[in-house]
Write a structure and sequence with these properties.
Blueprint: H1 6-25, E1 34-39, H2 42-45, H3 47-53, H4 55-58, E2 63-68, H5 71-79, E3 85-89, H6 90-98, E4 104-112, E5 117-120, E6 134-137, H7 142-153, E7 162-165, H8 171-176, E8 182-185, H9 189-196, E9 201-205, E10 214-219, H10 221-226, H11 228-246, H12 251-262, H13 266-274, E11 276-278, H14 281-287, H15 297-310, H16 320-323
Amino acid sequence: MRLIQPNFIKRFLSFSLFIFVCLVSVPSLSAQQLKIGYSDWPGYVAWQVAIDKGWFKEVGVDVKFEWFADYSASLEAFSAGKLDGITLTNGDSLVIASGGAKNTMILLLDYSDGNDMVVAKPGIKSLKDLKGKKVGLEVGFVEHLLFLKALEQAGMKESDVTIVNTKTNETPQALESNDISAIVAWQPSSGEALKRVPGAKAIYTSANVPGLLYDVLSVSPTSLASNKASWVKVTQVWDKVVNYVNDPKTQADAVKIMSARTGLTPEVYLPFLKGTRLFNIAEGKKVVVKADGLKSLYGSSKIADGFNVKYEVYKTPQNIDKAIDPSIAYK
């Protein structure tokens, strides 16, 4: 008959204690992996900081971010059910919902404060100069909304110009062509267009209408219902990201990470932050409130919804109250 030696018992107990300490000291990862699509916009690329720093693992949530070089491709992937969440504008959230891709905005990321631009060729000094000319933009999405707002403020109608449907990441090449007089795009595409065509300039930007273009994290209702605790953790990580990006002590490191994701140098990427107003949780809470006007995510979304219906991007108005859930990030 074999006896268990006292030394073995000590070693076994010590090992068991070690395993117990490890289990209680490290957050357990969520059972279901969350898949989030993100693309080339500073408010989306900022997530790369959390990815590289391992902050999602620290809070115990399993997240996979899928990169899309083409923004519209990320919308298509979400609409096809390949993603649990997506970074996009509030207006585009309504657009894809109208097409059947139901989603819920749970987190305010930023608003565009100058990075979205109407870039015109030399000789065109104002929007009125575009009358009778061709403008390249991605029809039915965020830049279309910006351009319609610009025309409205200039006392013009969409019929005053000819819109040429152009993917945003192809607008710089479009501006180089002979028949396109202006393009509408966001950074880095808008900046690239300015570089490619000597003498080109921005004749209207999102800084003219702050709050028209909010960016959000939106998720599928099914994923939100079954993974609410995990989505709460994701929003908490965002708060850490924004503070890291905005802190002068750590901004250089954040910009280095963000620029690497997009293939640009930190020096080129840094100015993009000036045209993007990032919101941490405390700041976002003041905007995600039910109110009219562009200072509210609800108000801005109502305006976007009105534009989308008016210009027949879709026919039926969306329920804004149901499109936004402030309880996940802003309790």
